[in-house]
Amino acid sequence: MPTLKGIDLECMRGDRVLFSGLGFTLEAGGLMQVQGPNGSGKTSLLRMLCGLARPAQGEIRWNGTEIRTLGGEYYGAMTYLGHLGGIKDDLTAVENLRISSLMGGAAVGLREAWDALRRIGLEGRELLPGRVLSQGQRRRVTLARLLVCETILWILDEPLTALDAAAVKLMQGLMESHLARGGMIVMTTHQDIDIAAPAVQRLQLA
Dmax of the chain from CA atoms? Predict the structure, then answer.
């Protein structure tokens, strides 16, 4: 059974400790919601979990092995969506989805990309450049990656930002389906969302 484990994690910003002694265990079907006020280290923790930052102390283990020693074995099992999204203004929605997916390790065909954008609510906007899309539409392009990736672990930083009620409901269903299939999700969010999952835990950062 796949397991993500944080052991005695500490995060520093300058000379200030954001959190220390942090631990958790996430298994297949599990959802972990990371909560806390602005500046408490939520995004920093997610960046640690996806290997973009290193903890000041402690370890992050995937199936019992420290993630820094695993390389592609871990990163091929994980999809990280940051809260900024990374949508390029000069690329169309289809191009943004295909390129971001490729950078994440998944080659997505043109037909598959069009289908994902339709399912995420962007039918008729597939060829529009990023600069003319609304914030909510840009966020949907980013989230469409979850429809085409085949990773077990999703690390999502504020995935509901700028989404309307219909898109939030769509995301709820998408996440519930992923968890029901044995997937795993770590997410931060300022919005209330009720996600049915085999196991739910909340990690509170002070």
Answer: 50
Torsion of CA 60, 65, 69, 75, to 10 degrees: -70
Distance of CA 93 to the CA centre of its chain: 19
Q: What is the pLDDT of residues 45-92, one digit of tens each?
A: 999 999 999 999 999 999 999 999 998 889 999 999 988 778 999 999
Kindly indicate the confidence band of residue 105, based on its pLDDT and cuts at 50, 70 and 90.
confident
Q: Are residues 47 and 54 in contact, defined by beta-carbon separation less than 8 angstroms?
A: no
- How far apart CA 96 and CA 77 sit, in angstroms, is 21
Q: Which residues have CB under 8 Å from 62's CB, separation 6+?
A: 2, 3, 4, 5, 70, 73, 74, 77
Which letter, b or e, does each residue of 56-84 get, where b requires 16 or more Cβ atoms within 10 Å of its Cβ? eebebbbeeeebeebeeebbebbbbbbbe
What is the H or E stretch that residue 12 is in?
strand 3-13
- CB distance 60 to 5 below 8 Å: yes
* Measured distance CA(179)–CA(168) in Å, rounded: 16
Contact assessment for residue 39 and residue 91, using Cβ atoms and an 8 Å cutoff: no
The first and second tokens of residue 95, run together, are: 């191009």
List, in order, residues 6 or more apart from 15 with CB less than 8 Å away. Answer: none
